[in-house]
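Exercise 7. Given the encoded structure of a 439-residue chain, write a plausible sequence.
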């Protein structure tokens, strides 16, 4: 490989040239090799990422400015990045929240949504929500949000439609209207960039709909940029021949594709144009995840009058809201979007001790816990209390009943007969999917 050639050539020259041989003490050779190593790393990152962050297009740069703008919330205190931080893999960065209900507080104190934030990275390739008939059943593919309600039918991009939702959600950024979002953008430091990208009339009150659509498309452009979707993990380096996986990581990868059945939904297939694997097939599944007893939405009685009796129907709940999809609703109750596994372990320790949340409601707190659940969901007895926390369930040797007991996927998880060491190997492989790897 190139880096091996550089090191070999340096050592060869130092032996042939007496002047270099005199100068090349062990310390100096170490310094030289370190410099070579740094150069190798730079070339490695360029080869993986391709386009540098400084090369964002105008639309991508506008989307970035909007994404990080805290003024686009009712109390000027919350941006998209509050729930989708790069340091935590473009999902929730707060250890205390992740350790509990995993649902993030909105701009208005005391307001909470009902699900944990999914990653906003690697979301843009999701196609427009549609279904295909497979084994005489409708299989829904694409869309965005855990329940697929950002279909992409209007803007041609589920990610763009998803980006517009939180600004007007009273439990998130809580702005009263699209016009208010645009008023704040047009008064921002990047207002000229906004009109440059979205048109000279973008700040005209008569152009609200088109200008607001442009906001969503710009945010999705940023979310689809090389700054967000870096493809710079150890796994990517492995695919490109830069590094080898450890014995445990390689075992985990093989189990991921075979006995663990993970790759059935979190596919390792390359994209249509040869893109690296996205680790999702964009479908929906009911994994039988229990209720998260710490979900603050249970106490959000103004928006959830059912309290602790509320059940999240996921895709089925959304399908029931549309007359064209109502016939398919019951068969999809409890199903949630299959998320990408890229950056599933990513965490900057500057945020504090690593605590992430997994599944749509953040019930699980570690990769080991959720892998163990996949492995043993149907092999362990049911806990007596449906609201048993994951820590107590692990200690008691049981699992709470599924939040939605119908349509549970029993074909690809539940009783996989993995050993404890095999679970650990799968976790080790999942940890190779974090962007920012340095060999």
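Solution.
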């Amino acid at each position: 490989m190139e880096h091996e050639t550089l090191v070999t050539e340096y050592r060869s020259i130092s032996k042939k040239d007496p002047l270099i041989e005199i100068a090349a003490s062990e310390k100096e050779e170490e310094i030289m090799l370190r410099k070579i190593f740094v150069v190798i790393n730079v070339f490695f990152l360029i080869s993986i990422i391709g386009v540098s962050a400084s090369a964002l297009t105008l639309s991508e740069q506008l989307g970035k400015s909007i994404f990080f703008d805290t003024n686009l919330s009712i109390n000027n205190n919350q941006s998209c990045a509050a729930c989708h931080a790069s340091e935590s893999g473009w999902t929730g960065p707060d250890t205390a929240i992740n350790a509990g209900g995993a649902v993030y507080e909105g701009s208005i104190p005391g307001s909470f949504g009902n699900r944990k934030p999914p990653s906003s990275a690697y979301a843009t390739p999701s196609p427009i929500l549609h279904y295909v008939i497979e084994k005489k059943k409708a299989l829904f593919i694409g869309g965005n949000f855990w329940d697929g309600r950002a279909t992409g039918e209007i803007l041609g991009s589920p990610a763009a439609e998803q980006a517009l939702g939180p600004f007007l959600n009273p439990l998130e950024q809580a702005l009263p209207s699209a016009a208010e979002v645009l008023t704040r953008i047009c008064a921002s430091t990047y207002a000229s960039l906004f009109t440059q990208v979205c048109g000279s009339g973008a700040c005209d009150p008569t152009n609200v709909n088109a200008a607001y659509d442009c906001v969503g498309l710009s945010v999705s452009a940023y979310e689809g940029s090389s700054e967000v979707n870096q493809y710079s993990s150890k796994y990517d380096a492995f695919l490109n021949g830069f590094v080898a996986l450890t014995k445990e990581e390689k075992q985990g990868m093989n189990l991921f594709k075979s006995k663990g059945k993970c790759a059935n939904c979190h596919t390792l297939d390359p994209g249509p144009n040869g893109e690296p694997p996205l680790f999702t097939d964009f479908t929906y599944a009911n994994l039988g995840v229990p209720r998260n007893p710490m979900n603050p939405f249970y106490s959000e009685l103004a928006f959830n009058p059912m309290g602790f009796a509320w059940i999240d129907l996921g895709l089925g709940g959304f399908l029931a809201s549309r007359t064209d999809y109502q016939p398919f609703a019951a068969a999809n109750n409890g199903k949630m979007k299959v998320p990408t596994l890229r950056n599933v372990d990513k965490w900057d320790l500057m945020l504090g001790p690593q605590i992430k949340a997994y599944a749509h409601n953040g019930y699980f707190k570690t990769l080991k816990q959720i892998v163990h659940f996949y492995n043993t969901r149907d092999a362990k007895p049911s806990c007596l209390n449906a609201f048993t926390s994951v820590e107590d369930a692990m200690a008691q040797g049981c699992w709470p009943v599924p939040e939605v007991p119908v349509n549970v996927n029993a074909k690809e998880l539940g009783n996989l007969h993995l050993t404890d060491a095999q679970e650990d190997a799968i976790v080790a492989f999942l940890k190779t999917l974090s962007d920012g790897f340095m060999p």
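Remark. The longest strand covers residues 130-134. Students should compare their own answers with the one above.
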